[in-house]
Amino acid sequence: MRGPEKNANRETTSGRHRGRPSIEVPDMGSSLHSEVGDVSQHPKRLRHGPGLYVHIPFCDGKCPYCAFYSVRATAEAIDSYLNALERECAWWKARMPGFRPQTLYLGGGTPSILSLAQWERLFGFLRATGFTASVKEWSCEVNPVGATSEKLRLLRDSGVNRISLGAQSFDDDILTRLGRRHSVADVRSACVEIRRAGFTNWGLDLMACTPGVSLGRWERVVQRALAERPAHLSVYALTIEEGSRLPAIWQQTGETPMDERMELRHLHRARSLLESAGFERYEISNYARPGRACRHNLDCWEGADYLGLGPAASSRMGLHRWTTGADLGQYCTAWRSGHQPPVQAENRTPSEAAQDDLVFGLRMRRGVSLGSLVRRYELDSARLTVWRSTCERLARLGLMEQGGAYWRLTRRGQDVADAVALEFMD
Ligand code: SF4
Q1: Which of 134, 164, 170, 401 has its C-alpha lying 20 to 30 A from 212's C-alpha?
Q2: What is the count of structural domains for the chain?
Q3: Can you give the pTM of this predicted structure?
Q4: Which of 7, 13, 14, 63 to mutate to test the pocket of ligand 1 (most atoms within 8 A of CB)?
Q5: Containing domain of residue 143, as a range?
Q6: CA 112, 116, 122, 126 torsion: positive or negative?
Q7: 371 and 258 co-located in one domain
Q8: Which among 224, 230, 229, 236 is positioned nearest to 184, based on CA atoms?
Q9: Closest alpha carbon to 60 in 185, 144, 125
Q10: Average pLDDT per block of 10 residues along the chain, 426 residues long
Q11: Are 84 and 332 in contact (CB under 8 A)?
């Protein structure tokens, strides 16, 4: 599904890390081991995290707008992937015996495409690493077609306590235009099964701003989503992602993206409907009932460490950030011969890491504490002065506001969040 909650731990096929150029590191091996040991020293440890992300890179087809890494699923390909993933788990267990993730996120691709036996196998070796014992929030993405009662019961009984359903829409025509392979009836029946399996912490993701869809029609989509009583809703505007098939398709059909002003009207309408229904917009694209925000993503956005497993999965440990190559064949071959596949790695300076946390932090309702960032990364006070004056300038423009120690975006600022973020980039 299209990154419910815009999960931070997977890379698109275009392999973008924002901003800085990356360096190739063929084997993170022992050097990373010693660096991971340093994480508790510098930067200062956060209250939350770390997290674990497991990428399941399989789908039953490719949606035109999607740039996440996934390949067409076959039983053999999934089995050989699980062989490799088991080796990767063992490799990390040997290097980080003290790794105690607080959250676990199974994303994709389409995790629910695994068979019951494949799920059992995956859970078996995840448990064997000891990585699941400390997990408090365990999320799994499911697609409407794969959300059978047997699979949902297995997930629940295995410890999954949060489900994210890739609904995308409650309008069959919009689903067809998005190139999705499920219907509204599939979404509704998945919602019933999720509730029947006993999940109370579950969410839906919706795709907004499909060209040609009227405001009234979009409003009905949101109302139908609310009628299913989810605890969480992610709302993304349809955008042209580098590496997706959408630009080529639209070139053929003559379709164009929704006009920016209309796009904002659609997003504002969703916000007002969701807020009236008791949801809090805790991140620009994410809404939750009180206490139901996705802890895994919150921790990642707040700068916590996370380990990502699988091709195209991203990881961050202290100042180090790396992404495994988006190539399933290469990933399986490497682990079959006992080697870590190539990763693209970046060693950030404390100042760069602080800037990353600042930009992500601004997307959240709570905002960011500039003083905490400076202390965490041991930056000098000149940095604080520069950031503060940028915030004050943006506040004069009505784009930012201060609440106690935190600076955050105003509603107007949320509409132009990307432009605001640029003001903080060196
Ligand atoms: S189901 Fe579609 S949107 Fe989701 S990961 Fe697969 S191709 Fe991408």
Answers
A1: 164
A2: 2
A3: 0.91
A4: 63
A5: 4-347
A6: positive
A7: no
A8: 224
A9: 144
A10: 51 44 37 41 66 97 92 96 97 93 96 97 96 96 95 98 98 95 97 98 97 96 98 95 86 90 97 98 97 95 95 95 96 96 95 94 94 94 95 97 95 95 90
A11: yes
